[in-house]
Amino acid sequence: MLTLNHFLILGAVLFCIGLYGAITKHNAIAVLMGIEIMLNAVNITMVGFSFFNHVNAPSQFGFGVTNLGTLLTGQIFAIFIITVAAAEAAVALAMVIAIYRKRDTVDVGEIDMMKW
Amino acid sequence: MDLATLLFWIFAVILVVAALLVVGLRNIVHSALALVVVFAMAAGIYTLLNAEFIAIVQILIYVGAVTILILFALMLTRIAGLTRTNPTNRLWPIAAIICILVGGTIIYAVTTSSRAIQNTMTAAQAASQVPANINNVVRIGQLLYSPTSYSYVLPFEIASLVLLVAIVGAIIIGRED
Q1: Span B1-108: which CATH code?
Q2: Is A7 within 8 Å of chain B by CB?
Q3: Does B131 contact A at CB distance below 8 Å?
């Protein structure tokens, strides 16, 4: 029996794995991979909520409610998250390549020219 | 156990194992290849949730574009003579504790909230309530494009602006001077 909790817990576990990758890695591209996993976890949560969220309207004839289907707001959110994630990946990888050209490193511990 | 539950567990186990490989493997190119599996299995989860459009977009954008972008960036930033190309810093136990705490809090919150307790609907019931004659892609298209009904036309246009700015920014930042 699949319930909403299955998808929420899967999203939470994936989010934690992505968070671990994003805060422990030295390589800037590995940090980006962690962030992509986190964004995917959020998308799974969004689409899961959308699947279990229904529009109920009062029935036209008589009593009871008619079901108008699932609310797709969560899926629209997921589409916008995918858009922003793609833009973010493009800009971040361009920055990583620019920094590599200038400093010959992609180690986030050594990229500290804006510190202090 | 019905077929949907079985498929969910197969997808979920492969997804979590591949995500652990992404953060755990020593060679960063192998991590990037494990990331492909993560994205593909997430697309499977979306298909289980009747979100065909998101699943296709996931395959096209993530598996097709983002992974290739990451692999190209890895190729262009190669440091010669390094065997461990994906090192973790020495504070990783603290990071693991923080992540487990965050995850435990989220799981506690979603399983004990009043909304979660009320929601006892199973996936089969939810799927049976979806109108059979209306396509998922059609409904998303109506929500994104039709200005007559309550729709997301303005956020959609702003998203195209975000993409344009990202393209220009990536070219400006990444070009050689």
Answers
A1: 1.20.120.1200
A2: yes
A3: yes
Determine whether the interchain pair B50/A87 forms a contact, defined as Cβ–Cβ distance below 8 Å: no
- Among B22, B25, B58, B139, most A C-beta atoms within 10 A, so best to mutate, is B22
| pLDDT reading at A112 higher than 60 | yes
**pLDDT per residue over A42-67, tens digit each?**
999 999 988 887 655 555 554 555 55
Q: Is the pLDDT of residue A26 over 90?
A: no
Q: Please give the pLDDT value at position B63.
A: 92
pLDDT, position A57: 55
Token representation of residue B148? 């007559």
Give me the total of CB pairs closer than 8 Å, taking one residue from chain A and one from chain B.
243
ipTM of the prediction: 0.87
Helix (H, G, I), strand (E, B) or coil at A65: strand
* B66's tokens: 């983002």
Q: Where are the domains of chain B?
A: 1-108, 134-177
For the residues of B63-123, what is the DSSP string, one character each?
Answer: IIIIHHHHHHHHHHT--TT-S--SPBPTTHHHHHHHHHHHHHHHHHHHHHSHHHHH----H
Q: Is B75 on the interface with A (CB under 8 A)?
A: no
pTM of the model: 0.87
